[in-house]
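Course exercise 7: structure representation. Students receive a sequence record and must write out the corresponding structure in token form. The form below is the worked example handed out in class, using Putative TRANSMEMBRANE PROTEIN (170 residues). Read each field label carefully; the graders check that inputs and outputs are placed in the correct fields and that the protein name is recorded exactly as given.

STUDENT ID: A-19
EXERCISE PROTEIN: Putative TRANSMEMBRANE PROTEIN
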Amino acid sequence: MLISILQHTPHWVWWLLAALVSVGVSQTHPRHRTLRAATAIPIAMAALSFYGVVSVFAAQSIALVAWAAAVLAAVVISHAAGVGSKVRWLAAEQRLLVPGSWVPLMLILGLFIIKFGANVALAMHPDLSGDGLFAVSVSLAYGAFSGIFLARGLAMWRVARQAEPSSMAF
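STUDENT ANSWER:
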């Protein structure tokens, strides 16, 4: 059955996975980033996960509530855990120094695997789109990953604002 699932997966999904892995691997090295560039990925990942919930579970408002609650919880927990605490603002360059980390790659892969698994389950059992437990479970997972991504983006803004509150560059 696994072979059949993999064979029937559209080719563009594998290209998307390759692109996401490439983005994730690029995050493992320290880099200088503008504030806009550093927050683009977290915003894009959160938007894609929100779209994933809305596109499949729009009829179930509990799914949207679960997604939002998970985002909020993940942002709060990530902030308390010090996510982004090693990011530094380079005033002379008007850029962030973002240390390399494997965490973004793990988050990207985790979100991809959950989305892939949910889509396979929905393709095999379309009635799951109306199952409240499935909708809440998937939405909580999407929201948790999105919240961690957003916490990283918010940490970048916080570092830049604290360093130079009057002249933040985009």
